[in-house]
Specification:
Number of strands: 21
CATH architecture of the largest domain: Beta Barrel
Helix content: under 10%
Number of helices: 3
CATH topology of the largest domain: Outer membrane phospholipase (ompla), Chain C
Strand order of the largest sheet: 10-11-12-13-14-15-16-17-18-19-20-21
């Protein structure tokens, strides 16, 4: 009974404190009223209710309560009303971390196919921007985060994780597994903003074994890992980078090959569908072969590489890389690598990946081939 009395006393005191709380405090704890929905009226007087997402040059994205997210040309817009606040970025404005954004139009929107009227703080005069002069219209909170925000170590990563397996049970027993991930963090994430830095982390492996009565086991064990950090110059397309890669390839007798170096990169092509990067660097290369310390080599080398990505319709993506590493103190020990992967959407964030990886060592240990080729298939999960 004492426990029940204690509970009732505590509940009564809590109720009394709540009743005695000043009305201003109660109002402060009340969540603010939900803003009215945005509305979009098209030229045929069709009306969409929901949320205006953003506008990039000639198109706008609107998330309708009934239709989901749709992309509509500005030429089809009769009227747009959005509570915001939104920030309008003109087509001739280039932004960086130190840019002064205080003079950009910010506020609620009242727009037609030809002009956007931005209303800021109460009592402030509205600003008018021609649709043709507005390169981007974006929510102010997202805009400030993209321009001014410096993400922490675990923030703003994009990329994919892949896995595949093959199992054979017959006279031969075969097991093959492959997996990997590729992570990218570009700051800022918005492609239309001047890039500041980019971090790339990747890893993949293929491991397998084939058993048959009366014969020796056949083993496959190939691993590759890499890390790169890019820092962009003011030119927007040029950047300096530092990178490190690590390789193990049982099929070529390579216990461990490691490269550490840095150089200059150039984004030759950058569009919505195509990205082409070219890189040149000086690197230190160390190789250990077949478990023997006498075969270890330390090499001064250069690395020349290109990376190309093309986005087809319906979400199909082709990614291709080629690199060549000439060595200067022992010129015969040069190496090269190439890869190509096509990713085809399957279901939501799941994709089917078809790829090929080729590694070439010009001077492997005796009895090992110079070339190692992998043909891979599997499922890929993309995020962000």
């Amino acid at each position: 009974m004492r426990n029940y009395a204690r509970y009732l006393m505590m509940a009564g005191l809590g109720l009394a404190a709540w009743l005695a709380m000043p009305r201003a405090t109660l109002l402060a704890q009340t969540p603010p009223p939900k803003p009215p929905p945005d509305t979009l009226v098209l030229n045929d007087d069709e009306k969409l209710v929901g949320h205006f997402v953003r506008s990039n040059r000639g198109d706008l994205r609107f998330k309708s309560d009934l239709l989901g997210e749709v992309t509509i040309p500005w030429t089809k817009v009769k009227e747009l009303r959005a509570a915001g606040p939104y920030t309008v970025v003109g087509k001739d404005i280039k932004l960086g971390r130190s840019s002064d954004t205080s003079k950009l139009p910010k506020g609620s929107l009242d727009a037609t196919a030809k002009q956007i009227t931005v209303t800021g703080a109460p009592g402030a005069a509205p600003e008018t921007v021609a649709v043709a002069d507005a390169a981007h219209v974006i929510e102010s909170s997202e805009f400030e985060q993209q321009v001014m925000h410096s993400p922490g170590p675990g923030e703003d990563w994009t990329g994919s994780i892949n896995a595949g397996a093959t199992l054979v049970e017959a006279t031969q027993q075969s097991r093959t597994f492959s997996a990997g991930f590729a992570l990218v963090r570009a700051v800022p994430m918005e492609a239309w903003l001047d890039p500041r830095d980019r971090t790339l982390v990747g890893f993949n492996f293929a491991s397998g074994i084939v058993k048959q009565p009366g014969t020796a086991e056949i083993k496959t064990d190939i691993l590759h890992g890499g890390l790169e950090r890019d820092e962009y110059f003011s030119t927007r397309r040029m950047y300096g980078f530092a990178q490190a890669t690590f390789d193990h390839n049982y099929s070529q007798g390579l216990d461990l090959g490691s490269q550490v170096g840095g150089g200059i990169g150039w984004t030759v092509v950058k569009s919505a569908a195509n990205v082409l990067d070219a890189k040149a660097s000086l690197t230190y290369l160390h190789q250990s072969f077949d478990g023997s310390s006498s075969s270890d080599q330390s090499l001064a080398a250069s690395n020349f590489a290109e990376a190309f990505t093309h986005k087809f319709k319906h979400g199909v993506v082709l990614a291709q890389t080629v690199s060549a590493t000439p060595t200067w103190n022992i010129t015969k020990d040069w190496l090269a690598n190439a890869s190509v992967v096509m990713t085809v959407p399957a279901y939501k964030r799941l994709n089917i990946a078809l790829g090929a990886i080729d590694s070439y060592l010009n001077n492997p240990p005796p009895s090992f081939k110079k070339n190692s080729f992998q043909l891979t298939t599997g499922l890929t999960y993309t995020f962000k």
